[in-house]
## 1
Amino acid sequence: MIQAPGSVPSGATAAEAALAADDSPMGDAARWASGLLTAPDLAPDESTAARFVPTFPARHTRGFSATLAEWRTKGPFTVRDYQPVAHKGWVVLSGPTGVRYTLSLTLDSTGLIRILALQPETVIPETGTWDELEDALRTPGVDHSVLAARLTPEGMVVLHESAGARPMPTGSAYKLYVMRALVHAIENGELSWDDEVTVRPELRSLPTGDMQDLPDGTRVTVRETAYKMIAMSDNTGADLIADRLGRDAVERAVTASRHHDPSLLRPFLTSHEVFELGWSAPELRTAWAGRDEAGRRELLREIARPMTVRGSDLGETVHRLGLDWHMTAHDVLHVLEGLRHDSERDATGTVEHILTAYPGIPVDQAKWPRVYFKAGSCPGVMMFCWLLQDRDGTVHVLVLRQAADEQKPIGDGLFLRGLGARVINSGLLEADPQSGEAAEHGEGAGRGEGAGRGEGADGKAAR
């Protein structure tokens, strides 16, 4: 059995000790979930239900205990690694034959488990050079893009770039524009952090996040909603904020953030609209692809209704029909940089608190005291971006993107997330761009025009 916090068994591995010592909600949940796999007896559904969000059992039609019984056949398990990051956590376990698995957890805002999955461990290759990163990303049928840059008083220094100027779908990176529009509305006195948004059927979206489970009429402060929009990539939260601001305000934020072609994001879509257009009636996809901007705005008025799509309906990719949020890697960098300036103007510290709440990966805070992170995914789309500021105040940005005609070659994002961690921890971002790999593959290198690889962020919903 996994021990209680602070109770480290004799001879425990470093990973076991770390898991035992974590007294956070994630540590408690990870110990409990790991214990389900190592306990002498199989836990029945009635004894586990209280740990999960109410919608969890519906995803296990045979009962979660049946799934748990299958997982337990791979054991007995030993804890080999534990990585908690805010509301997400990963426990690497090895079975008796040495095969390793990753137990992934996602908590909701109350500490209940929303996602619990066991899958073979995703192996992340060493990426100590930009060439090794490109080699790792190169997979048939998957486009990829990389931008690594340092922001200096003299301007941007590109450390490495491949297809950085190519517009690609980016999933939930669109929420960065919603956040910028919100900050500007608050600065202009049009809204305050203590104002409220109201959950309504026509604004309810699909996960990620948990606000879609709130009853109709629930009122939530703008502050809490914005926090969930960024830290938990809450789709319904983002749509509530966008509705309160108005579509025009978000479109102005796109232009103000130096998007290279703002028309690609007009009309600016909500997650609700992408889901409804992409995976409800097929004729809606056809109509969207064939209409101009005015026609598309009319189509959005026609579907302003409660969503008819369920999470199980998502599968076929739709991003090539324009049903996503297309940005270049430089567009991503510009909106991150804009948010950094927004935060510096915010005397309340609210913007910084929201943007730094979830770094996406375990980060050495002594080395990187300031980290902004955003992930994004839809079927056939995966992206991760970071803005990191070191102890001297120098800012670095890393953008990794993948797109394919189907989800399978990309996977659930653990691979791309892991590559980001490799780059950040390798020292590549701090290397002198005039020497070695960084100099050889600077701006305009253009490697990896049709490359990508993934295995293993976080489900099918826009993130």
## 2
Amino acid sequence: MRTMEADICVIGAGSGGLTVASGAAQMGAKVVLIEANEMGGDCLNFGCVPSKALIATARHAHAMRSGGIYGIAPVEPEVDFAAVHDHIHGVIAAIAPVDSQERFEGMGCTVIRAHARFVSEREVEAGDTRIRARRIVLATGSRPAVPPVEGLTDGPYLTNETLFDLKELPEHLLIIGGGNIGCEMAQAFRRLGARVTVIEGGTPLAKDDPENAELVLETMKGEGVSFVTGHHADKVEWTEGGVTVRTGAGTYSGSHLLVAAGRAPALDDLGLEAAGIERDKKGLKVDDTLQTTNRRVYAVGDAAGGMQFTHLAGYHGSTLIRRLLFGLPVKAKTSHMPWATYTSPELAQCGLTEKEAREAHGDAVEVVTSTYSENDRAEAERRTEGRVKVMVVGGRPVGASIVGESAGDLIALWSLAISAKLKMSQISGMVAPYPTLSELNKRAAGAYFSPRLFDNPNVKRVVRAVQRILP
């Protein structure tokens, strides 16, 4: 077995690991990057990228059916699902070079394609190589969580890791899980022509603002997606022609079954005990600097046991670089972390929801809104369903909830505002091009000041006095 010394050893070539590896290598550190599976991790190969490619296809299919309002005769699209499969994998292939082994080797990284395992507090074995590193970063990501449902593992259930290999459209797709992944895929497959039933033991899209989530769910139901809520899947039975799921609300049969019941950190068989690294059900135990119980080992992204977003892993990676390379004190925060569900309409959140804000700040919370129906661009495109809701404390936003067209893009401004501790006056002072949906954010900021200006008798008295003085 060969041995190798490194300043930084990164285990996992997803968003977080690649961020650390690229930054560290390009700034002169000796970096070893270890990945047993596909470069780019879950997001590129099985998650964000293929799912959004599928959603784009479904959007085009839906547009063909819904053009009547624009004066375009609706037609039923002919879906070639084998071509849809090729489109999805073509998108993956187009992005893959950015995350490729060759690119990272060109940056100066030593890339090892093997499973990594700790053999001591600072040594890792991968393939025929033992790496002794000053610092080690665990960026192993997560895998689909498979609930302990009787009979589930007896048949060919789908997860996000296998869903995008389908070359034939399911006749009737059953989905266990009504979170963001379950709802995104439910709407996409329904728009492509499949029957879809979502089975959710609790409330679908429960992490988001309930009013906003309800608008999404009602839209999906209007498009033909069926929901079974408040009842867990109790038993799965496989037949030659498909699958049946039994619940407390009844029995549901379909041709395919997708499990979208959350994700679990991928931490198995890493030899964590040998390195003195502790974990719990959520992931590795880390402090706010992302350091594990081994002072030489850090964790980023899903492995760190918090929010599970690609952009969070990238943020973790960029934050950690400052500590690993320069020894600077850093803390990873989530108060400004946005997320989005790419249904139609889209659903986005940053910071505190209204409920969370009221629990944290009580009567000090002011909620301001702007609606898509008041936006000229939304009206022109007939996308008037939706709202921007901002929670404000002491003149500064502490959270924003958006539902509507391009909500995932619009939420970015509020992440900046919360991160930089901007005031609503600064948001109100920006100029948005007309006509764009970005005016919705400015209008929400303006709504914070409207009652202070227009409903204030003192302001009116001052204005009248000034008018008498001015020439």
## 3
Amino acid sequence: MVEPSHPGNVGSAARAMKTMGFSRLVLVAPERPDVTRHPDAVALASGAGDVLAAARICATLDEALAQTTLAFGLTARGRDLGPPSCDVREAAVLARAHLDPEAGTEVSMVVGPERAGLTNAHVARCHRICHIPANPAYSSLNVSQAMQVMAWELRYALLDAAQRGVLAPDGRGQAAPTAASGAAVQAFLAHWEEALVAVEFLDPAHPKKLMPRMRHLFSRTGLSQEEVDMLRGVCTAMLATARGRKQG
């Protein structure tokens, strides 16, 4: 939950998660630092006090997504520039396919803030935009209600996968590549921008939308750690070439 302002919503979100079997709640820059102990949050958690009390608080969305390998940004608004869009049911199926304990993959669902929803900067940190196909004449959902819908779809998809044996590794074939964490991807993007400036492909005085487009390009591909390492090697070579050219 990004920048939650109402303690009751945080408590309701904890309850929504626990009813569907989830327990890891992360709060990004909540308006009240003591939100998990606020009486409204405790009252509306109603039996999910353990999830509420264990909620992790982060200063930034980047910090919250540091170990995430697939992030969905829940929003009702379309974006001119952003990651691919899907509905909440498709998101649950994609999450199910992405999760692999052996590969260390992690999926995050990003919601909030209550007043205006996710900003373009928040969405840019996600791999997919996710929406709930509600009544087009009145599609506004309370953030905790949206989390309940999302948690149900995820539970349904994961239960279906478990019943069909999708989640059980069979031990055959090549091991799945290790997905790059959010922190690894952010570090690569910073390195990539530095390299693009060095080879004069990116003009920092007039960047236009080059880096946001690059960010969305790499987000769509679902980079593995091996691919990030390879691309950072390319960045290092680009920087070395640019420096050699200037010295020569």
## 4
Amino acid sequence: MGCSDSKPKVEESTKDCPKDYPPNGLPESIKKLPEWIQLGCGDAEYYCEEKGAVFKPSAMPEECPDLSEHNNFFSEVMIANPELYGKLRGLTTSQGVNLGHCIKTGIDNPGHPMIKTVGMVAGDEESYTLFAELFDPVISGRHNGYAADAVHPTDMNPENLSTTKIDPTGNYVLTTRCRTGRSIRGFRLPPCCSFEERREIERVIVKGLLSLEGELKGDYFPLHGSRSYGPKPTGMSEEKEESLRNNGNLFQEPDSTLLLSSGCGRHWPDARGIFHNEAENFFVWVNEEDQMRIVSMQKGDDVAAIFRRFADATEGIKKVLEAEGREFMHSDHLGWILTCPSNLGTGLRAGCMVKVPLFSAREDFKAILGKMGLQARGGAGVDSEAKGGIFDISNADRLGKSETQLVNIFIEGVAQIIRWEQALEAGEDIEEAIAAAGLPEKY
């Protein structure tokens, strides 16, 4: 898979894998997909002429490819500092990650004129320090000027949350959720981990999750067709998988060249899955874009209960990892270390599905949210359209502010938006209040 100078040795569990299963081949479920997706789900680095994904980390050209038509933070920094490519091209982390693994997705994907992606991923924790001359300005650009020597604060104490009621009437907020990610120190990140490494990541994480008690107690369900988990040797049933996806609680195979070029689709669906508790209001995705993506959610606006469940879970997993001599990836500068620089720091997105048809009809709706430290998505994800004035509104920042600060910005901001919606329903003028909108002073 190209993330080290030589192929990882074949261990016992890979010897037993049939020819139609990773890392030796593709399962039938993947063979049914278009070829451009299949090419990213095997053992090799992603190479697809159809999609223009032809940059090879294993054989990087001496000169950086032309980035003049690209629109991402990586290309912006590289165009401004063209010497960086040659300076960093020959470096490799102690776990075998080179510059090409980090920038392939940004070279293969020119981007969209209206949507600016990061254009980089980290192949391991060391990537962020070895290639800091490139990562630091990219991180600064994505996170509104975050300095190379800045220190990121962490605060997971639910007692520090705002007591403001987001939706006192219960008429506007449908569901609320908090999500973040965690990575385990010592393993490579999903873009570059080996087949065996991913299985070991799954084993360690699932052991931690199965030790959770009380309202967090639950079970682990590998993706349908995964053969990595002994208690469920063929993964969850297709019916279970379809149910989880229909409810928006489960990821699917990578269907974008951004993810495929990053390397996150290799060996699909092996060692990927989801843990959820019995109430199905706490979920952990395993080995998708991040080693762990942790989600706490429920109907209504009780973000304090959601955050407390979320904090208890991360603490519980941390204790089990420590008993195994493991710990989460974390640094004073970057906070919690995750695959994409956009999620560094807290990695946290506190959001709710909220119905505000009058306020969201404003042409400056998203610009106002930006001033308040918020962002809006349609109900089905990043690029989806909203229906019936229902938007997924969440904190915009991840890095430079603590978890509780970001949740408080979300609480105060959405509470204000609902008050504006109510004012518009009553025919009142809100222009003066809109003009004064911004981040809450104490955050």
